[in-house]
Amino acid sequence: DWDKLMKEYEGSKTALVADVDCTAGGQSLCEKVGVSGYPTIKWGDPSALEDYEGGRDLSSLQSFASENLKPMCSPSNIDLCDDEKKKQIEELMATADDELEAKIKEKEDLMAATEKKFKKRVEKLQSKYQEFQTEKDNTLADIKKSGLGLM
Q: Where in the numbering of this chain does the Thioredoxin domain appear (predicted)?
C-alpha cells in the first residue's frame, strides 16, 4: 500500500512520499528524525516531522495524504504564511549564516538539556515507584503471613 501511495505522489512539487532504509544508508537520517522502530511513518514539516498514527491500509493513507500533505508556510511558500511567520522568515533569511547556525545550535542545546532534565526526572520517578512497589509487596506479604489465610 505504501508503494502505491509513493507512485501517486511521484513528481509532486508539494509533497514527498518516500521510504528510507534505516538499516543501511538512511541510518543517519532516521536517527535525526527520531525513527526508533520499524516501520515508522513520519509526516509534516521536514524540520519537525510528526509520527503518523493512522491506519496503514491504502484508503487510510490516501485519505490522510489528501487532507494533510499540502503546501505549507515556508521560505519557498511564503504566500501561505501569516504576517507573523512572514516576518520571522524574513528576519531569519536576513541573518548571516554563522549567526543562524549559532541560533540553531543554541536551540538544539536547549532541547537536549530539556530531554536530559526530563530523563533524570523520570529516572527519579521510576526509583520512587520501585520503592513504593517493594513497600507494598512487603506489607501485603506480611499481612498474608500473619494468618490471613487461616481466618
A: 2-66
Rounded Cα gap, residues 117 and 101, in angstroms: 24
Render pLDDT for 4-18 as a digit per residue (tens, 0 to 9). 999 998 988 878 888
Predicted TM-score (pTM) of this structure: 0.50
Grid cell at residue 110: 536547549
- Helix%, strand%, coil% for the chain, nearest 5: 65, 5, 35
Residue 149: name the closest of 133, 138, 136, 141 by CA: 141
The residue behind cell 499540502 is 70
For 1-151, strand residue ranges (E) read 42-43, 50-51
Sign of CA dihedral 20, 28, 46, 95: negative
50 lies in which domain range? 2-93
Last residue of a domain, one of 76, 93, 110: 93
Q: How far apart are CA 151 and CA 149, in angstroms?
A: 6
Mean pLDDT computed over 104-125: 96
The domain that contains 21 carries what CATH number?
Answer: 3.40.30
**DSSP letter for each residue of 11-32:** T-SS-------TTTTTHHHHHH
